[in-house]
């Protein structure tokens, strides 16, 4: 191997380690690797900059604006309210009823805003129907993934592969071309979730419509006022006489955690009492003179009826990452008090004040109603869930205009595809997406004051840097080495064996370094593999696109999964248990159907 090849391999190893350790934001990790390649002469400065002018990348940036305009119009919210079932049915029917419409919507819009907008509505709907919200949030994310892999614009990684194909002179994908494989994977994915979802998904199993499943509980940190009648009272069976509908989870006293079910515990004046109850218990606690919420002194001047409970999921743009709850002081920044924090599907039950905040943390806040209006569009939070019915500020006229613009954009792309087949003339998809984005801004559906916040610049930098890294892999000869090794291992199987290896490599990298970076890194290997085998590379490109979109087993590869993990309080084991069969379904169907639809 050449010296350049050793540099590339070393940088790739450090890149993967940096992702696993979450050393920096994904964009910064990938940009660092690209800059090292440029500094060592593996790529030129022009090759580094070229990634930022890629057709697919610019289209992705504009789609962020279209997505935000549709969101601002309230179209997603209205759509979710319309399609959710109004009565309880067996889970075999309810899960597809939730998943199929989301998948259809996701085929034409980015997964992330769909999941962000639908999640709070789905939680409120599940609570109202007395169903476990954990039965539906993970299927929501999976539905968005399945729908996204069916079209060119459904997920950003498809556009990345499309842009790389155009750059290498291989042509690109048509709008619905990937649907030939995506529809099969979606169909069997829906069946899998309908048949096994009730047993595999966490939460109480729903066997009959008359069952009484779990209702979502919330945690409250209570303290006893000086004149409380509860001081000295013994906790009996996790309950306190005088507090209805509330169970004691634990008591923190002098730095120690006491479990009332294991000890006959009497309440002391300075105890921090962690209790559970449904969202309706908040007003009951605020009105009870024998207890007070910890931190309530910050909101002592507010009327209890003016205070609301919110759930927020911290994004990479949250300004307090790495700081403790005490250091950041939510009240100074948001006029809000922290009630609880969930991480990795579990509630942090002790030493909350010294907990360092991380991306994906689910934080339950107590604040005034204006908190929702002020921060619901902020990029500091992936999601703001108002614990009452969500506001809908936009009128029906705005929703109709946004819907017409979205349908016109899709129709124009479809007509362009038809014309290109019949007359050999076609326009870049970028043109139609840019027109839709500009119309949403001109018609004031998308506010111009903060339109730049709608774009995930970290994702843009990640994709552009991944293009440069892919170029470095190609220039250094590493792509040829990896491709030849893969071919030598599966030479007896032929191109299908190489396709399987490319699919698996892309899938594994997606779970480590995000889908957009993974497809860009594997693409040059697929190009060289096709040249060595003397076959058409398009089946390999389809495999990369499908594998890059098939992120079911972890929350790392897709940001939508990260949001769902926090909002639904899922564990890594939940993702692995439910997602592994989904991943296997996608892999098997890909290996059999890709060579059938796209011949080598």
UniProtKB/TrEMBL annotation:
Keywords: Membrane, Repeat, Transmembrane, Transmembrane helix, Transport. This is RCK C-terminal domain-containing protein. It comes from Mariniphaga sediminis. One of its GO terms (biological process) is potassium ion transport. One of its GO terms (cellular component) is plasma membrane. The keyword Cell wall biogenesis/degradation does not apply. It is a multi-pass membrane protein. PROSITE patterns: RCK_C. PANTHER family: BASIC AMINO ACID ANTIPORTER YFCC-RELATED (PTHR43652:SF2). InterPro entries: Cit_transptr-like_dom, DASS-Related_Transporters, RCK_C, RCK_C_sf.
